[in-house]
Amino acid sequence: MAKYRFLYALLYIGSLVLALCYESRLTFVLFVGVAALPIVTLILMVLSGLLLKLEVEPDADYVGKLQDFGIKVRVINRFIMPVSPMMIIGTFHDRNGNIIAGRRLVMSVSALHKCEYVFEGNIRWRGEYELGIEHAEIFDLLRIFRFRLRKTPMHNVIVTPRRILLDETSALCTDDYDSSITKISFMESGSFASVRKYEDGDLMKHVHWKLTAKHDELMVKQSEQNLGSSALIITDIHAVSEDTDTALRSADAAVEAALALTRKIITDGRTAVNVYRTGNGRPDVISAVKNEDYEKLLSVFSVIPITEPDKGAEELIPRASEHLTGNEPLFIITTGTDADTFADIMRAVGNSIGEIRLYLTASKPSASLIAEVNASKNASLWVIDPDDVSLSLRNSMGFSI
Asked: Closest by alpha carbon to 59, among 77, 42, 44, 72?
């Protein structure tokens, strides 16, 4: 911009010299025209800026992690003069899953027309992101003045965790009603307590075909024991590394594992009681019984933050204790813990719990933690691979480590 101002100054001085050296109408008109030109372009620029409208429109408000989507930037010129040039600076995503602040876009818009540009890409981590235009300005035709637009739209896009299905695995939870000898489920034996409408994620083997034919819609069988039993899931995503990508990677793995276990437990006809931290750091609980509860939990887990390193799973136990009855399994999914913390957890739950499964998503367990877990009769330790959460969970259901 300084370059154009310097060139205009040379033009102004040149026209002034001509007007003084050659006293004629032509040189005088030339000087007046050069002197008045910036004022005219300034007025046109201001009018154009006042009649300019910016819009930011993403493909969707909710998108899956690593799912491609676009954000459309639309510039609408409602003035009789073209807008050229115009510079837009904003925060947008790219095709490598990164969020890039300060991305620049230079464009021109014809009179009474609109111009559109689409940023395509994906986002690699779950969370809530504010994408859109942070700064926009137009210039006059001489590039001497600039006009900053005040209304620069931003749009919140929520990136949800990956949906991991474990429907083909064996049951996660067992209770006193389950037969330890025959291992025949209530679906196979034909005994059940109630019937409900089919929901996404239900297994087809649980469909009650006679009632389905009668009501002309899929109906699913539920057993009495499955209606009353539950499992407890504690999800702790505290920071375990100063590296942002490492912290986000392990936190996402913990969230995805909790959601996968929740969906599996619901599919088995039980209740998944989830305990986690909200944005203000306080513990909260969501009991998931049906698919709508799972979708709610998915939305909540999309935006729960990573807490400070001194916040561990043991701080969630008091809230979880409100839901302990003495026989439900407890799943603790955390980015990391140590032997002392696990010992605190075991003292907190006492005998009011059934099987305990501890899942780590950030690092290999220490020798002292392994020894502490092995000393507990009803506890087991598992490591979640953030790159393959599904396989890690399936291995924990079928094999020992």
From this structure: 72
Q: Which of 62, 275, 311, 39 lies closest to 163 in space, CA to CA?
A: 62
DSSP string, 300-313: HHHHPPPB-TT--G
Radius of gyration of the chain (CA): 32
pTM above 0.70, yes or no: yes
Is residue 159 a contact partner of residue 63, using CB atoms and an 8 Å limit?
Answer: yes
Domain 1-160 has CATH 2.60.40.3880: yes
Is residue 164 within 8 Å of residue 144, measured between CB atoms?
Answer: no
Any idea of the CA torsion for 44, 47, 48, 54, to the nearest 10 degrees?
A: 160
The residue ranges of every structural domain in the chain are 1-160, 178-223, 229-398
**Largest CA-CA distance found in the chain, in angstroms, rounded:** 115
Spell out the long-range contacts of 45-49 with Cβ–Cβ below 8 A and sequence spacing 24 or more.
45/138, 45/139, 45/140, 45/141, 45/145, 45/147, 46/147, 47/79, 47/81, 48/77, 48/79, 48/81, 48/83, 48/138, 48/147, 49/138, 49/147, 49/149
**Could you give the C-alpha distances from 17 to 7, 11, 398, in angstroms and in order?**
15, 10, 92
CATH superfamily of 229-398: von Willebrand factor, type A domain (3.40.50.410)
Q: How far is CA 347 from the centre of its chain?
A: 35
What pLDDT, on the 0 to 100 scale, is given for residue 218? 80
45 vs 43: CA distance, rounded Å: 5
Distances (CA, A) of 346 to 123, 283, 312, 313, 330: 38, 19, 14, 11, 11
d(CA 99, CA 117): 17
Instruction: Tell me which residue has tokens 């991305």.
Output: 103
User: Bigger pLDDT: 176 or 385?
Assistant: 385
Type of residue at 42: L
Neighbours of 220 (CB within 10 A): 23
- What pLDDT was estimated at residue 323? 67
